[in-house]
């Protein structure tokens, strides 16, 4: 792919997804982050708001989400709570309507909600209902949010869609990492689906100025005991996502990155 035509980010192609990008970051004006009442999502909200964005911190649990947004607003940041359960189409639609009532365009949609690190879940004798739920939250939830927020994103100045995925959904990692040969089966399937969705979506939106990337935050200390297993601090994982949220207009699309470095699908 080629560099964009200077000055017209909305009619251009984007750069290769395999080269290292040293971004001249753009400052987002408005952002939506899903699953943001705790963990990485909460810290992504903080970092985007520190950059000056109006951030819609969304969560499926209204009490927890409102409390988290209040905590960030008390730091002087423009963080607003919006209820959003990615598994519930009506909730996603209502959230999009609520955001559209407050901003004219959206620069960033971070599809962060999901997880379910069922480490012991193995592929043999898989609980299909369990896997369906994991895929629904991680992948179909992202699809619902993109569908609902796309018109607002089209009206954004520097629109970016970030699908928070994982090396657990990488075919090359699945072949290379012994611990992923059997365990984490449902999660791996869900994140592989989310990676594939990222590539298809980026292709469909090529030339619109909307950049779409799959981002791994790395192994992050959001679960009890994870730090002792080598997980890194939450702000570092969140920064990996914020990198993609602030990409310049000629940044990559359809890629898979951690800390700005390309990963293989
Ligand atoms: N931590 C890691 O090492 C790591 C590594 C690679 C990728 N990731 C990815 O990074 C993202 C965030 O991970 P995390 O470690 O911060 O996870 P986390 O601490 O378990 O938080 C997950 C968040 O997603 C929310 N969520 C789950 N289902 C939802 C739904 N249907 N609608 C709305 N929100 C929902 C949870 O809400 P509740 O509080 O209501 O449950 C929570 O806010 C996930 O997509 C995960 O797969 C994490």
Distance between the termini: 18 Å
CATH class: Alpha Beta
What CATH calls the topology is: Rossmann fold
Point out poorly predicted stretches. 1-14
CATH superfamily: NAD(P)-binding Rossmann-like Domain
Evaluate the radius of gyration: 17 Å
Second-tier CATH architecture: 3-Layer(aba) Sandwich
Any idea how many domains? 1
- Share of helix, binned: 25-40%
Outline type: globular
* Class derived from helix and strand content: alpha/beta
The major β-sheet equals: 8 strands, mixed
Structure in words:
The chain has 265 residues and is an alpha/beta fold. The protein has one domain (9-262): Rossmann fold (3-Layer(aba) Sandwich). It has seven helices and eight strands, in the order βαβαβαβαβααβαββ. The protein has helices at residues 39-50, 62-73, 89-100, 128-154, 171-176, 185-204, 234-245, and strands at 30-33, 54-59, 79-83, 108-111, 160-164, 211-215, 256-258, 261-262. Strands 3-2-1-4-5-6-7-8 form an eight-stranded mixed sheet, with helices on both faces. Strand 6, helix 7 (234-245) and strand 7 form a beta-alpha-beta unit. Helix 3 runs parallel beside helix 4 (128-154). It is globular.
